[in-house]
Design the sequence.
């Protein structure tokens, strides 16, 4: 792994991924909206920035050219197929054999075997309704995006994040194939460690064609699992 692209580089998760990638001496190309370029000022002499919408196919084609890996933050903004447009562009233009790692939340299910709590499902329904009503978030489009990925033949991984918090790194998160596994009960991960998992997934062949649901390695549920 030498050159990678980070799509959504100016967001909170994206900035952490840039830091982790540079710490590994990767050559980094970052994609972000034009109005957010200044959020990457601390890296401007160390990375290549391609400004533009992440669902702009021309932007993505330029950014992923020659990259060995692509890290993509699947953001369900608006109602213009932002997530699915981004995912399709990455799948179409990433070079053959590249490692493609996408981020989303626990609500995405690859095989329908995840088990969600009543409170989780209630919050998801509310977020879906509010987002659709105000035309700011489209959960269904994010689901469509992951369907495109799951049906693809590329070397993909979809990392499903729990609730997030800020703080110093606690280490690489633990993961399970399905939400509902007791190891995930704490439902919290440091954002910096979510980014760490994304970057580490680039070199983990064990995660190819999987959708790990993650949780912080120092949470009570993760510690209970390791103690057993």
Sequence:
């Amino acid at each position: 792994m030498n050159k990678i692209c980070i799509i959504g580089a100016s967001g909170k998760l994206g900035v952490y991924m840039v830091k982790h990638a540079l710490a590994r001496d990767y050559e980094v190309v970052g994609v972000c909206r034009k109005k957010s370029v200044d959020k990457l000022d601390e890296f401007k002499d160390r990375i290549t920035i391609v400004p533009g919408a992440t669902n702009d196919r021309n932007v993505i084609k330029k950014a992923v050219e020659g990259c060995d890996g692509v890290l993509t933050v699947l953001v369900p903004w608006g109602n213009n197929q932002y997530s699915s447009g981004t995912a399709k562009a990455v799948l179409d233009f990433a070079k053959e054999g590249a490692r493609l790692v996408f981020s989303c939340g626990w609500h995405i299910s690859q095989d329908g075997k995840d088990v969600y709590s009543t409170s989780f499902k209630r919050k998801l329904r509310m977020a879906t309704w509010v987002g659709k009503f105000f035309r700011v978030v489209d959960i269904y489009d994010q689901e469509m995006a992951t369907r495109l990925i799951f049906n693809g033949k590329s070397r993909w991984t979809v990392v499903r994040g729990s609730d997030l918090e800020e703080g110093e790194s606690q280490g690489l998160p633990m993961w399970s194939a399905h939400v509902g596994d007791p190891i995930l009960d704490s439902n919290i991960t440091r954002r910096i460690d979510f980014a760490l998992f994304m970057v580490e997934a680039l070199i983990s062949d064990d995660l190819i064609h999987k959708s790990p649901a993650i949780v912080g390695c120092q949470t009570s549920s993760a510690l209970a699992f390791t103690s057993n």
